[in-house]
Amino acid sequence: MMAVVAVYAYVTQATLARKWLLFLASVPVALIGNVARIVGVALMAVWFGTDVALGAYHNYSGYIVYVVAVLLILETARWIEKLGGRKHATAAEAPSPARAEAAPVVGARAWAPYGVVIGLLMLGMLALARMPEVRVSDRTALSTQLPEEVGEWMGTEQRFCQNPQCLKAFTLTNLHDSEVCPACAGLLEPISLAEKQLLPSDTVLVKRCYVDSAGAAVYVTIVFSGSERSSIHRPEICVVGQGHTIVNASDFTVNIGGGPPLRVRGLDLELKQVLPGGETHAFRSCFDYWFVGNNRETPSHLQRLFWMSYDRVLRNVATRWAYVSVSTSTAGSPESGHERVKRFIAAWYPRVRVADSPATMPAPPPAPQ
Ligand SMILES: [Zn+2]
To answer: What is the C-alpha to C-alpha distance for residues 253 and 257, in angstroms, rounded to an integer?
Structure first.
């Protein structure tokens, strides 16, 4: 963009001062253009989903912003020409020969900008068409291997019944070496049927259940986003989709040894289920989450979308985001659910937060075509 403006300034502006002025004007114009693009991609992600935002819009937004930037530069050039002689008369450069030279070509300069603009637009389109593909970061911010035990917390893997009529979840300890679902003899998998159906195949999902010395359990899930499509959905939509009602939502912080405290979004959930006796019971639980990517942490889905757009647009990098959620039941314990989660995160998180750990992702499958 700036190279293009440099050529344009050189061709159309009479004096060195004006050439520089127009060239310097391209800095804020390029900045405005890119900010508009990042905001645009993020807004598209909010309104139409990340697939649309990162697909079509990301590919074409560059052209739109380029055209807008060129128009802004044209307007700036016109404005600089209107500044008159005073400005460059006081400039250090020798203005007189340049002005004398400039005078006879006034007629030519009236149409020259349009020719230059058309040429530049074509050059710009060509450059954009040859722009490198977005590079997928091969690093994850968190370890994809969860620790087996952390302090008093003992980890155990979970198994999920894949029978749509059953869908029960078990810990390996509960299963007592059973290979099939103890309730319906259905197939067991490390992730639930819903997760399996919902997530693109290049998404990596790790889960573990941790139990403290008093027998209280927390359930951890980390979703590592895949290469092209975003596999991370807004958590509020997912939990409601699973039948929960969000009773309350608020942020809290957890002090992790050294460094700034971690900000976590805490949801209080209620799940109404009909008991075998016929009465309805409301199961209360806590669902706490945050996002990690490229050494950034945030509890805000919107913030994550902006950072994702920023990395895509300005750095041509698709950051692999990790979406961490920790949930626990709030029934039958004097300790509040969020307090338990806080206590767990403080012990567990430093063990998985490995800045720039190499990804142990399976290679994404070839694009279907
Ligand atoms: Zn089952």
So the answer is: 13
